Amino acid sequence: MMFLAGVAIGGLVCGILSDKYGRKRTLMASVLIQSLLGTAIAFSPWFLMYAILRAALGFISVSVVFSGFVLSIELVGGHWRTVAGISYLFPVSLSYITIAGIAWLLREWRHLQLAISLPGFLFLGLWWLIPESPRWLLALGRTQEVIVILEKAARANGRELPPNIDKQLMPDSSEEPTEDVNVLDLFKTQQMRKKTLCLFLIWFSVYLVYYGLVLNLGNIGGNLYVNSVLQGAVEIPAVAISIFILLKGGRRWPLSLTMIISGVACACTLPLYLFGDLQWVATSLTMLSKFCISSSNAVMPVFTAELYPTTIRNIGVGAANVSAGIALMLVPYLWHLSSVHTSVPMSVLAVFGIVGGLSVLFLPETGTAPLIETLKEEEHAARISEAEISETKRINNNCCT
Fold first, then answer.
1. Tell me, what DSSP letter sits at residue 175?
2. Is there a domain that residue 144 lies in?
3. Which of 61, 295, 338, 384 has its CA 20 to 30 A from that of 35?
């Protein structure tokens, strides 16, 4: 519970830090602190110290996830944005399988904590390999640093930069100074409010269903370690298929359908509570739901990041994570509802899967659109969209009359 409370707060705070100080600095500082906290937990002598360190670990771990994710999609362009964003989740699937094996071998929790914390120090060497986000630097007007990064990338790929690349990247002299953004900008315009509120519901629903299944493996029956391996195994093809779906079918409909199907699969388990000898059917439907919601969990961050401008992207992703964090804090208590009736927990997951999937349809498609860099571009695009809608309505009214 303390870890999940830290996650709920950390997403927003670390998102603000990442947009202010850069993706790379925030990511690497978070990796270092995460490794130190994880190691310290293994040696905590008192429960109070353990609980405090777990909350701090949750706070900083979510920064590792989202700073790294945003950096991965901002380093590339075109269809590689989709490939990089989704492939970022492959290690999550493998970790479920790996940690099940490690937990089976190391039954002492302190040994398990050290086994998953100490390897984090090895990733500090990435500081000399990973560049800062060129999009973030460009949005702040730090053009010369962008050129240095692009020159290194061109040499590594055996390409040559255009001779006038510096002029292409130079901001227009008529442009206003760099934007100073904050959390309130997520609600500044009607379009931004709509996006933000819908994403809050979507992230809450995905995390409730996803972790409602992951963190309650013991409640669906069967062997806990085997179930952990199965959940990781079904997630690998789900993530892989998501890449193909996103490249061909966009973001909006795939996210909506996978969430709805996941909810329907949870709903289909409800009649099985009347029959105690159909464990294999319940497990199969649960894995189908996990397969679909894993795809949703892969698509959702990419879709969210593409909906927000570069200058506020990490804040937007972090703010959405607050609602996800609330869902995480509720998950440990979800299965306590079985005291009312054994079917209630899966009923809750079914409802939020379906409702969350339907709410996706209120958002615009982003698959073929270039990333928006600033809030001014966002406002300009919103005005154009509203003008097009008004013109369409006017034409339809004229046709009808």
1. S
2. no
3. 295
Dist. CA 89–CA 102, nearest whole Å? 20
- The C-alpha atoms of residue 241 and residue 248 are separated, in whole angstroms, by 11
CATH number, position 206:
1.20.1250.20
Q: Is the pTM of this model over 0.90?
A: no
Q: How far is CA 93 from CA 87, 133, 169, in A?
A: 11, 26, 39
Instruction: Give percent helix, percent strand, percent coil of the chain, each to the nearest 5.
Output: 80, 0, 20
Q: Which positions ≥6 away from 75 have C-beta within 8 Å?
A: 84, 131, 133, 134
Q: Write the pLDDT tens digit of every residue in 270-299.
A: 887 666 566 677 778 888 898 899 889 888
- Domain of residue 281 covers 2-130+182-376
Residues of the chain with pLDDT under 70: 167, 170-180, 216-223, 273-279, 368, 380-401
Q: In angstroms, rounded to a whole number, what is the distance separating the alpha carbons of residues 347 and 268?
A: 9
Q: Going by C-beta distance under 8 Å and a sequence separation of 6 or more, which residues neighbour residue 81?
A: 73, 302, 306, 371
Residue at token pair 């390409």 = 159
**How far apart, in whole angstroms, are the C-alpha atoms of residue 53 and residue 3?**
8
Is residue 174 situated within a structural domain? no
DSSP string, 192-209: HHHHHHHHHHHHHHHHHH
